[in-house]
Amino acid sequence: MLATFPDSAVSKQRKIIHVDMDAFYASVEQRDAPALRGQPVVVAWRGARSVVCAASYEARKYGVRSAMPALRAERLCPQAVFVPPDFARYKAVSQQIRAIFQQHTPLVEPLSLDEAYLDVSHSPSCDGIATEIARTIREQIFQITGLTASAGIAPNKFIAKVASDWRKPNGQFVVTPARVEAFLTGLPVARIPGVGKVMQTRLGSLGVETVGQLRELPLAQLQAEFGSWGARLYERARGIDERPVVAFSPVQSISSEDTFGEDLPLSALGPAIIAQAARTWAARSRTERVPHTVVLKLKTADFRILTRSFTPEVAPASQQALTDIALALCERVNLPADTLYRLVGVGLSGFHDDAGAAVQGELFASGPPGASGDQD
After folding, report:
1. Are 323 and 310 in contact (CB under 8 A)?
2. How close are the terminal C-alpha atoms of the chain, in Å?
3. What are the positions of the active site (predicted)?
4. What is the phi/psi pair of residue 352, to 5°?
5. What is the pLDDT of residues 323-332, one digit of tens each?
6. How, if at all, do strands 293-300 and 172-174 pair?
7. Fewest CB within 10 angstroms: 36, 92, 110, 111, which?
């Protein structure tokens, strides 16, 4: 029976588990088609604008990764077996896995079809021992689905997510409160969620490559360099993450963006928009909800941020549809032709539980993306 925890229950130390399925989509394909086992499987449609949804560990040995353009994956691994994604099947397996989670705690926060946070601080399962709960969950997943999962166990979400990747595939790693500082000290700053290549470069200019080195910088300096994000870096360097596990948090928006190495004119942004649309669509495939609005984000060389949005009558049903709308939204950028841009992003918002839901909050009262009326 599913345990319920009193609202007044207070724990001095949280016990958070991050469960991450191992190469989920590819593993489902290999499970259901024995001929694919041991083969470098790439879950993706073929085509110039297609991206990799998942890659088996055999394919990853060649450098193939999710969100990578399918053409690049084919160049890296010519012998790869391309399999078109079957999201209905992946969703069915995901529901089996979530049912297992619910046997151990009601506090489950799914991040996608293949990963979730679990707060087991007050769970009576396995006598409340988080490492045993994680081990039991992984065993149940294998028994019921035939798939393997990895898990990280820690005092908070940030450390648990990093730890779940520590012994992949089919492993688990625990970071106790007493070991948090030692665990983080030698960790590359790139392992902190939100620290991308541009942030790594900026931190590198400050002599920071590891979390331990980041910890040496005072809060005031980090805030001066990175604004509000500096406070977040200060906390993460110390293993601080007070975010609760939210049992239900439906997807509201998905986006992907990139900062260029050098500023570019609007006329040169096409390839970058196509690439970001591909990444956004790959992320969109991980949620069951349906987006209705496409958003184009631009940042000028002088750090002015512009957004252009469009809500079509029919929700974008393909990566091609998303890309076409994002490219068309460039026509709504009414700045001088010689304006340079340092960042571009493509997003999806206006999510509903089904494609037929009423479209709300339409940002364009009439006309296609080329019509007039939006604001910076």
Report:
1. no
2. 53
3. 115
4. -130, 170
5. 999 999 999 9
6. unpaired
7. 92
Cβ burial 272-303 (10 Å sphere, 16+ → b, else e): bbbbbbbbbbbbbbbbbbbbbbbbbbbbbeee
**In 10 A of CB 74, how many CB atoms?**
17
Q: Which of 148, 151, 141, 204 is nearest to 173 (CA)?
A: 151
Segments making up each domain of the chain, as ranges: 16-22+88-180, 26-85, 188-237, 253-349
What single string gives the DSSP state of each residue in 324-359?
A: HHHHHGGGG--S-TT-EEEEEEEEEE--BSSTTSPP
Q: Which residues are catalytic?
A: 115
User: Count of CB atoms within 10 A of residue 131's CB?
Assistant: 16
Q: Give the strand pairing for 293-300 and 305-310.
A: antiparallel
Residue where the block lists tokens 């999962």: 149
241-271 pLDDT per residue, tens: 999 999 876 778 899 988 888 899 999 999 9
Exposed, middle or buried: residue 126 (CB in 10 Å: 0-12, 13-18, 19+)?
A: middle
The position carrying tokens 């073929």 is: 46
pLDDT band with cut points at 50, 70 and 90 for residue 373 = very low
Q: Structure pTM? A: 0.70
Is 114 annotated as belonging to a binding site?
yes
Domains 26-85 and 253-349 agree in fold: no
Cα–Cα distance measured from residue 49 to residue 91, given in angstroms and rounded to the nearest whole number: 24
Scan for tokens 């060649």, then name that residue.
62
Q: Quote the Cα angle for 5-10-14, to 5°.
A: 90
Q: In what order do the strands lie in the sheet with 108-112?
A: 108-112, 115-119, 16-21, 149-154, 172-174
**CATH T-level assignment (fold) for domain 253-349:** Dna Ligase; domain 1 (3.30.1490)
Asked if residue 169 has a cis previous peptide bond (ω within 30° of 0), the answer is yes
User: In this structure, which topology does domain 16-22+88-180 adopt according to CATH?
Assistant: Alpha-Beta Plaits (3.30.70)
